[in-house]
Amino acid sequence: MLALLGLARKAGHLVSGDMACREALQRRHVHLLILANDAANRTKRFYIEEAKRAGIPLMETAISKAALGHAIGSPDRAVIVVCHPGFAKGLLAAIDKPGDYVRGDVNAKNTRF
């Protein structure tokens, strides 16, 4: 999964960091939202509510902020959004850690959790 995140970043289909992710959500360019396991509760609460409201699949991982940042060549990242449906489907299919789970359906635009 982490290698696919790096590939999505290089292809320009991944946004990371709080402000950039909020802008992508406002523009409705998000196909998957990924949260680190050690993200702040306030951050998690905000993005879970935004994902519910917009019908965006949300992946809460067992991966730390440091590991997410390292995978995309950035400092620690608590939140990452994928802006391409193909990469979103690939990441959902690549879930390989037992602690990972997903809310929502990548094929449904108005999924309710």
Question: How many discrete domains?
Answer: 1
CATH topology: 60s Ribosomal Protein L30, Chain: A
Written as H for each helix and E for each strand, in order along the chain, the element string is: HEHEHEHEHE
By CATH, the superfamily comes out as Ribosomal protein L30/S12
Overall average pLDDT: 83
The Cα radius of gyration reads 12 Å
What is the CATH class name? Alpha Beta
Query: What is the share of helical residues?
Result: 40-55%
Low-confidence stretches: 96-102, 104-113
How would you classify the helix and strand content by structural class?
A: alpha+beta
Task: Figure out the total of helices.
Answer: 5
Strand order of the largest sheet: 1-4-2-3-5
Backbone shape: globular
**How much of the sequence is in beta strands?**
15-25%
What is the distance, rounded to the nearest whole angstrom, between the alpha carbons of the first and last residues? Answer: 23 Å
Query: How would you characterize the largest beta sheet?
Result: 5 strands, mixed
Indicate the CATH architecture.
2-Layer Sandwich
Total number of β-strand segments? 5
